[in-house]
């Protein structure tokens, strides 16, 4: 093996082996982990009411295991007001009756662990439902009440905030999550206390108006604004303890960690991010002491701060990551970045921003944890959407996702190419834009796709199997299916740790000619080459090499990808929409 380094190619970026000094108790299983995310209302319905539940998930664990993944992350399963898909929590300590009971969670964890799978829940520390007992008591017991300082109340708000409230109502869109930060307390529909006055006329929201912000304090409180408390005020301190209690409760049931919703939203007025980083470092120290080996996954979108701040992983979020957006957003959405996404068959995209962004974030965070890329999630369109709708396109993206450093997440159903259906109703705060990625899992080619015994019109959201093609049953028996290709990629990642979460990553193709994208995974002695061609046109790339003593061994390909030694090196030919993983011999 003697591939010459192309270190002079402009824009090339080498990133080194990661996470040597990850948090004290980051468990070893993370090093090769692949996660599978499950939207619990849509995975498997065991009681025939058209909504998924925990016994349903348990009944499908063998399937999850068969994918080869290591861990599951589930969106919130707690008692909820169901105005935001479970992210409006009424009681953090109880499972919502639609999903079963707390003992079902214990059973899920036991059954998952028996199969070698880890289970992570979703922690939503930034807000509750306005129907939670905490909020009801906070709103009605006055400023001295037990929970008053858990939330942020004001009696007067600015004219701009008042105008926003008015506009929200005039638009007939009281749930609008963009207009106004303050919500009239009366909107929560809680009976007025005997005093005839709520604790404050307005409360601060964190997302939808029905989600009052929890009060972790202000980094630099303004003494003229009575609601701005310092980080170490009694309310914020009590809340930190409360969050630890909640985590402890679920850790004691055996869960392996949490994905943390809007992790950066907790501390207000925190420009330099010190306040929020300290908060999570404090949580981390506590976990390291009391629950070593449990993991924290941030929904933060800023690995450079989230990982040193105490998280084991952080997602690159589309809205914070122009580079991830540049390569992944379907034609319609990518208008925002001026042209088609890289993973489109038009072949007009680019990956330069992504390489720069990923390398930069990686360098700054690699000693602390992992960057997480994902196929989609309950907020973000599935892969199969807009112009990206053929098996070879999905396989090309999966080749990328499952050969990148970091901890990859697969959104349930993406492994069978489930379609992001447009025009669905908004269900429980999903808005149309998120409904398409939350539809029921498609198990077989029956009218409810084997998801439920309810009538098809009673399902949580409608299904679309494309005549049965987009189901587990059909793809299970097709050796060329997206399902079996995804399994093969996950196996490859586990069999060759250099392709997994911590190997070096280096783009070697020329960024000014972005098709194909060729990168290397290595540790200095072992080397792998990944070649991706999402475009419809055939392309080739010559890997400069001393032809006499190096060659490529094809490990896995999507399409008829070939490699041949020539005088100039090793020529890799990729037909339209194809991908391959090679080992350098
Ligand atoms: C992010 C979650 O992913 C999303 O589904 C939710 O609506 C908001 N946070 C509010 O919790």
Order of strands across the widest beta sheet? Answer: 13-12-11-10-6-3-2-14
Note the main sheet. 8 strands, parallel
- Percent range for β-strand residues: 15-25%
Number of E-state strands: 22
Secondary-structure-derived class: alpha/beta
Distance between the termini: 6 Å
Question: Which hetero ligands occur in this complex?
Answer: 1-deoxynojirimycin
Notes on the structure:
The chain is an alpha/beta fold. Helices cover 25% and strands 17% of the residues. The protein contains 15 helices and 22 strands. A hairpin with a 4-residue loop joins β16 (517-522) and β17 (527-533). The longest helix is centred in the middle third of the chain and has 19 residues, at 234-252. The termini are close together. 1-deoxynojirimycin is lined by residues 84-85, 87, 124, 207, 261-262, 299, 378-379.
List keywords for this structure.
eight-stranded parallel β-sheet, globular, alpha/beta, 585 residues, disordered N terminus, binds 1-deoxynojirimycin
Structure at a glance:
This protein is α/β, with parallel strands linked by helices and 585 residues long. It has 15 helices and 22 strands. The chain has helices spanning 54-59, 61-67, 102-114, 133-140, 159-170, 234-252, 274-290, 303-306, 322-328, 331-334, 352-365, 391-401, 431-435, 472-476, 482-495, and strands at 14-15, 35-38, 71-74, 78-80, 89-95, 118-123, 153-154, 182-184, 202-204, 257-260, 295-298, 313-315, 370-372, 409-411, 504-507, 517-522, 527-533, 539-544, 552-558, 562-565, 569-574, 578-584.
């Amino acid at each position: 093996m003697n591939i010459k380094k192309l270190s002079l190619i402009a824009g090339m970026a080498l990133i080194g082996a990661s996470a040597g000094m990850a948090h004290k108790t980051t468990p070893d299983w993370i090093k090769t982990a692949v996660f599978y995310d499950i939207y619990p209302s849509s995975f498997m319905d065991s009681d025939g009411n058209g909504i998924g539940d925990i016994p349903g998930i348990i009944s499908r664990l063998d399937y999850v295991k068969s994918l080869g993944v290591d861990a599951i992350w589930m969106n919130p399963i707690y008692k909820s007001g169901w105005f935001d898909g479970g992210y409006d929590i009424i009681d953090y300590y109880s499972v919502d009756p639609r999903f079963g009971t707390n003992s079902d969670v214990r059973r899920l964890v036991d059954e998952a662990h028996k199969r070698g799978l880890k289970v992570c829940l979703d922690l939503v520390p930034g807000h509750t439902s306005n129907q939670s007992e905490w909020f009801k008591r906070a709103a009605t017991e006055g400023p001295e009440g037990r929970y008053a300082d858990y939330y942020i109340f004001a009696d007067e708000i600015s004219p701009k905030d008042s105008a926003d409230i008015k506009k929200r109502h005039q638009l007939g869109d009281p749930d609008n999550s963009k207009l106004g930060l303050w919500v009239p307390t009366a909107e929560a529909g809680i009976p007025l206390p005997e005093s005839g006055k709520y604790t404050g006329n307005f409360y601060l929201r964190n997302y939808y108006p029905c989600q009052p912000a929890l009060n972790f304090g202000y980094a630099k409180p303004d003494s003229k604004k009575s609601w701005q408390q310092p980080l170490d005020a009694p309310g914020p301190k009590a809340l930190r303890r409360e969050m630890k209690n909640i985590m402890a409760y679920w850790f004691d049931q055996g869960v392996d960690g949490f994905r943390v919703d809007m992790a950066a939203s907790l501390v207000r007025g925190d420009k330099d991010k010190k306040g929020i980083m300290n908060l999570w470092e404090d949580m981390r120290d506590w976990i390291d002491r009391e629950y070593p080996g449990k993991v924290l996954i941030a929904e933060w979108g800023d690995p450079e701060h989230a990982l040193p701040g105490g998280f084991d992983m952080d997602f690159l979020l589309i809205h914070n990551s122009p580079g991830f957006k540049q390569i992944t957003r379907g034609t319609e959405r990518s208008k925002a970045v001026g042209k088609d996404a890289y993973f489109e068959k038009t072949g007009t995209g680019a990956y330069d921003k992504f390489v720069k962004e990923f390398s930069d974030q990686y360098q700054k965070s690699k000693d602390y944890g992992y960057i997480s890329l994902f196929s989609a999630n309950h907020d973000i369109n599935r892969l199969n959407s807009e112009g990206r709708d053929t098996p070879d396109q999905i396989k090309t993206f999966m080749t990328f996702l499952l050969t990148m450093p970091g901890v990859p997440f697969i959104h349930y159903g993406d492994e069978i190419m489930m379609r992001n259906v447009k025009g669905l109703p908004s269900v429980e705060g999903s808005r149309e834009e998120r409904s398409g990625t939350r539809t029921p899992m498609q198990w077989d080619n029956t009218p409810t796709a084997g998801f439920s015994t309810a009538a098809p019109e009673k399902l949580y959201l409608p299904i679309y199997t494309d005549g049965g093609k987009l189901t587990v049953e059909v793809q299970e028996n097709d050796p060329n299916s997206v399902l079996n290709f995804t399994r093969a990629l996950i196996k490859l990642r586990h069999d060759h740790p250099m392709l997994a979460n911590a190997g070096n990553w280096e783009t070697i193709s020329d960024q000014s000619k972005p098709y194909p994208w060729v990168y290397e995974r290595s540790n200095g002695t072992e080397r792998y080459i990944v070649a991706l061609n999402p475009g419809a046109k055939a392309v080739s790339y010559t890997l400069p090499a001393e032809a006499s003593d190096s060659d490529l061994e094809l490990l896995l390909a999507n399409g008829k990808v070939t490699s041949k030694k020539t005088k100039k090196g090793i020529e890799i030919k990729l037909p339209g929409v194809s991908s391959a993983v090679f080992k350098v011999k």
